[in-house]
Design brief:
Structural class: alpha+beta
Number of helices: 3
Radius of gyration: 18 Å
Shape: flat
Largest sheet: 3 strands, antiparallel
Number of strands: 3
Strand content: 25-35%
Helix content: 40-55%
Length: about 90
């Protein structure tokens, strides 16, 4: 049992290290952070994303904000084509 616990801890440590590296690599060059609020079919949601440019961060936040308020591919596309209620960006 002690060896299994040790191997489990090593596995968890490796997974945590990979996750930390992925997070660092995906946000290290992100200099802009934008929050986008969307309304679709009577529902609203806001999301924040980071990117190298304000346009990149806005697009990612726009798509993320549509996720919970759109059902299926057609609604997701329709939500993505709508103008946001608000967009706020700042330099990180």
């Amino acid at each position: 049992p002690a060896a299994m616990k040790r191997s489990t801890l090593v596995t968890l440590a490796v997974i945590a290290a990979v996750f930390a590296l992925f997070f660092y690599m995906s946000t290290a060059r992100a200099t802009e952070e934008c929050t986008v609020c969307m309304e679709f079919n009577g529902r609203s949601n806001c999301a924040t994303a980071a990117g190298r440019t304000a346009a990149e961060a806005t697009e990612t936040a726009h798509n993320t904000a549509c996720g919970p308020i759109a059902s299926g591919m057609n609604e997701t596309i329709a939500c993505g084509n709508r103008a946001p209620l608000s967009v706020q960006c700042k330099t990180r």
